[in-house]
Specification:
GO terms for molecular function: fucose binding; metal ion binding. The protein has about 675 residues and is mainly β. It is built from 4 helices and 42 strands.
Length: about 675
């Protein structure tokens, strides 16, 4: 096996480390102003601006080579968005033609006054980031350019392999050199059965990406076919129709980009509601779906629904929506977070009349339910309802006896999961019985720790379960509690504990850390982050405003985060129009109650009781707003979940004027 490089997103704006230049400078609008850390302010003070000229450009020198995942651009708020729209973002290591010949990450589009838009570059390597208006005579104006990179965690770890051929050691695959003399920079096992290579990261990480570089001399068969768990490669595909030779299976051939699209991409005929379906051949908790579109036909994948589930009703197109691809797509490859949605089938469907659906690659990655690795025990067992049934991976079934655990009726009944190792636990998910007996799940303590004193029931409490509804699943945030054992115990005399599924994850819903408010009150704002998506009484677990102009709901995260995903659940009884069409805004400002912050997404495609995930690609913010702009309506939310990574607190500069007024300036992130 050859080079293995493992990446994870950094929460650092690399642009702040670099230097900037541009093709010309209008008045005092210097290039450096686009990397001053201030997105919004007086344009003449905080924005860069070239003269009107042919092919104007702006360049950032990062002073080192990085794998660049994201570029974020903010435009002027006073005017002139044409001076930023249509610009090419180029990344690379060459200064030929002032860097403007480097590969293109994206072309800016959709920018409006004062807007911030994120462009995904998929770990492109480069020292220089250029923004260039090619083939135009124009000004180029940028109010902020942010660049986020990735860290190769492999460089921190140690490597070993099943055997070593000559001097081709395992460590060569994590030496940071992709290309060079193969015998010096590549790892190589002997010819043997089931050869393997292993990296020990020396700590536990949420793994986002694995990148492999093969030998440049020959022997590709020594790298191809190795498993890295893109679940799609294990599956089979079909689609609603096939255009020419653009077969469904082409989208899971492991090739994102190839010289012949008809060989490596799939396409349906032009038809109403075209769809593509992946059968994973087993049920998985799906964390991520990555879609690569045809670079010349982005519209043929724009606005498509990604659906995940176990049903083949309507060819699988009635399963729950994970995400909706942006319309228009801004780049070839986009990543969508599904946060552990359970399913065997992954569908991509383009609703509407007379469309082609074209996909060049679909990749599917799963989350790890730690409970499936562990062992379970309980204080007693009723009939054959064994403790292991609560970690069998089945939330719901026709026979409760076959997939739920139950203790006997006793004092202080308990159930315990041994994870067989110590973990930082972010969330615990419990599913109740669907046939009744809800008191057997409600009111139980979830305890996490490393002690077996009192059978583990003295460990610290993560949460106490509320009153469940039949068959409902509720998520509890444990905020990184450390432990090997997870207990569910119901203190008191003469109780029973019954669990239909217990799941344990290392991801965290940030919304549970925050506080909420909204523009008016029908149902309380806090209900939208109580961890309960569904119930019989909508008013007891959903938030709702009055019927009014521009209703809004706001979450204060109480700190600064890189937000990757916002997940919204609509009412199950009616009124999806009270959730669809809302803007999700993320930022640090409370101007207009936070409703002027940049837009992550606009909700769409929600049906009654449905949950949809919206990708925000690392937008930085303290506040998450959901607002119905320009409408008179009520706003109803049954659950808002927010996922991301901690950013940190910015410095505060306090300037006191002699006039006794105090200006407190928070540098914009």
């Amino acid at each position: 096996m050859d080079k293995l490089i493992h990446l994870i997103l950094l929460s650092e704006n690399l642009a702040l480390k670099g230097t900037a230049t541009q093709s010309s400078t209008y008045d005092t609008w210097a290039a450096l102003r686009a990397i001053d850390g201030v997105r919004y302010g007086d344009a003449s003070t905080f924005c860069s601006f070239t003269s009107s000229e042919s092919n104007p450009w702006w360049r950032l020198d990062l002073l080192d080579v990085y794998d660049i995942s994201t570029v974020i651009i903010t435009t002027r708020s006073d005017c002139c968005v044409d001076q930023a729209n249509g610009a090419e973002i180029r990344i690379g290591n060459s200064l030929e033609n002032n860097g403007n010949n480097n590969p293109i990450c994206a072309v800016t589009s959709g920018l409006q006054r004062g807007y911030t838009i994120t462009y995904s570059c998929g770990a492109m390597e480069g020292r220089y980031v250029n923004v260039a208006m090619s083939g135009r005579t124009s000004h180029l104006s940028l109010c902020e350019v942010e660049v986020y990179g990735t860290e190769n965690l492999a460089l921190k770890g140690t490597a070993t392999q099943s055997s070593t051929y000559d001097t081709w050691t395992a460590h060569h695959a994590v030496d940071g050199v992709r290309y060079g003399d193969a015998s010096t920079h590549c790892s190589f096992t002997s010819s043997e059965s089931n050869p393997w290579w292993r990296l020990d990261l020396l700590d536990v990480y949420d793994i986002s990406t694995v990148i492999i570089t093969a030998r440049s001399d020959y022997c590709l068969e020594q790298t191809n076919g190795a498993e890295i768990q893109n679940l799609a490669l294990k599956g089979t595909t079909t689609q609603s129709s096939t255009y020419s030779t653009w077969a469904a299976q082409n989208a899971i051939d492991g090739v994102r980009y190839g010289p012949d699209a008809s060989t490596h991409c799939t396409s349906t005929s032009s038809e109403s509601n075209p769809w593509w379906r992946l059968d994973l051949l087993d049920v998985y908790n799906i964390s991520t779906v990555i879609i690569t579109a045809h670079k010349s036909h982005l519209n043929a994948a724009s606005g498509a629904e990604i659906r995940v589930g176990n049903s083949l009703d309507n060819n699988g197109n009635n399963n729950l929506v994970c995400a909706v691809t942006p319309d228009p797509l801004s780049g070839n490859t986009e990543t969508y977070s599904c946060h552990g949605m359970e399913g065997r089938y992954v569908n991509v469907i383009l609703s509407g009349d007379k469309n082609n659906l074209t996909l060049c690659e679909v990749e599917v990655y799963g989350t790890e339910n730690l409970a499936l690795k562990g062992t379970a025990t309980q204080s007693s067992t009723l009939y054959d309802r064994l403790p292991v049934r609560a970690i069998d991976g089945v939330r719901h079934g026709t026979d409760t006896n076959a997939y739920c655990s139950t203790t006997q009726h006793q004092s202080d009944p308990w159930w315990r999961l041994d994870l067989l190792d110590e973990y930082e636990i972010k969330s615990v998910i419990i599913t109740a019985r669907s046939d009744g007996y809800l008191d057997q799940t409600s009111g139980a303590e979830i305890r996490i720790g490393n002690s077996l004193d009192n059978n583990g029931n003295n460990n610290p409490i993560c949460a106490v379960t509320p009153v469940f509804q039949h068959g409902y699943t509720i998520s509890f945030s444990c905020h990184g509690m450390v432990g090997r054992y997870v207990n569910v115990v119901k203190p008191g005399l003469a109780f029973t504990v019954s669990l239909c599924e217990m799941e344990v994850y290392k991801t965290e819903n940030l919304a549970f850390k925050g506080t909420t408010t909204q523009s008016s009150f029908t149902w309380v704002s806090q209900y939208a982050m109580d961890g309960q998506k569904y119930g019989t009484d909508t008013g007891s677990y959903c938030s709702a405003t009055l019927y009014e102009s521009n209703p809004w709901w706001r979450l204060d995260l109480l700190d600064y985060y890189n937000i990757s995903t916002v997940i919204i659940t609509a009412r199950s009884d009616c009124c999806v129009d009270q959730t669809n069409g809302a803007e999700i805004r993320i930022g640090n400002s409370l101007v207009n109650n936070g409703n002027n912050n940049p837009i992550c997404a606009v909700t769409s495609g929600l049906l009654a009781g449905h949950t949809i995930s919206y990708s925000c690609q690392g937008m930085v913010g303290h506040y998450v707003n959901v607002v119905m702009s320009g409408r008179t309506s009520a706003l109803a939310l049954c659950e808002v979940e927010v996922y991301g990574k901690f950013w940190g607190k910015p410095a505060v500069n306090v300037y006191l004027k002699e006039s006794s007024q105090c200006d407190v300036i928070w540098p914009t992130l």
